[in-house]
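W.,

You were right to be curious about this one. When I first looked at the sequence I had no strong expectations either way, so I just let the prediction run and decided to look at it fresh. Below is the sequence, 211 residues in total, followed by the output.
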Amino acid sequence: MKILLPFFLVISSVSFAQDSKAEVVLEKMSSKIEAMTAFYIEFSVSLKNSNNGTNSSETGKGWVKGQKFHASYGDNTIISNGTKTWTIIKDEKTTYVTDADDAESENMNPKKLMNLWEDGFKNKYEKESTLNEAAVHVINLYPKDASSSDYHTIVLYITKSSSELKKAVMKANDGTVLTYSVTKFTSNPVLEDSKFTYDSKKYPGYELVYD
């Protein structure tokens, strides 16, 4: 399967909080997300590494309803009904079908970014700041088990007024910086279940590959 840009990060470890102020902000953000029946998100992502000259950008959008999601990353689409996940690669005209609990499938769920801090991170409240004229909390995350993580620091920007994540900057050990910016967020939209089921009629000529 063609590897998609790694938007979301999961580290298998036990949650570990160091900073009580950061914990209050993060818990409030997570509680708000968990209370929603669904949400819609639009985002942009930039990937930079001055060591090897990498400089790319991408946009995407996602619909989430419970454990189901439908997300697009550039030309590629991922659909999950909570049981099966379909990864649709346009330039290959191929759809890869996996179990929804497959690690790679789970990592592409837009909801992961909203609660990635919960597993395997220490956190530290850095400062209050502004982002696009909005007051934000700036919180740093550090992997508890640094030896098993590709990232040494993740910086979260969370609005003070609405407890929404606006930006996440992921700093990798190899010098890569992945910046994820939320450009639109809508809570509790009405989403039909058909949104989260693969319709082969929409992808004529695509090969189905089962993992």
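Here's what jumped out at me. Residues 85 and 102 are 9 Å apart (CA to CA). And, maybe more interesting for your project: Confidence is low (pLDDT under 50) at residues 1-17.

Coffee later to discuss?

I.
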